[in-house]
Amino acid sequence: xIRNPIDIASRVSTELSGLIETIIxxxxxxxxxxxxxxxxxxxxxxxxxxxxxxxxxxxDTVESLVDxxxxxxxxxxxxxxxxxxxxxxxxxxLSRVIEEVVSDESRDNPPTLATIREALESGQASRxxxxxxxxxxxxxxxxxxxxxxxxxxxxxxxxxxxxxYE
Length: 166
Prior knowledge:
Blueprint: H1 14-26, H2 35-44, H3 48-57, H4 65-76, H5 92-102, H6 113-121, H7 124-131, H8 136-139, H9 142-153
């Protein structure tokens, strides 16, 4: 399996990225999931209701997910890691927290997802609510979101890689 050093997830539609992530989560294998295994799953194991809508999608003017996957395979190869094509960003609220922690000049190293979680546990969200940078109800969803990102990408993943710019 080939790992790609560039941010290829940004070149994938959110629909295909979501489908790839779903397939990765559904496949029960010890082997890394590749683009070839995603294509095989779509061709042979895709639930009927999704398959039917995908066939209809071929008649749309928008590229179908199968066609898009085919182009990715042509460009990156069948052995490319499917996980590299999963698009993941923090919510706008968590992005504000990440930006706040990143801008802390007293840090020696760039913050990781674990660093952001520690900041949240230490009251970062409450401080930002007090400053008006976050709403009270927005702060309530930050911990589950950071935990989800840590589960998916690891505690040592750089937090800046998940910033959402809108």
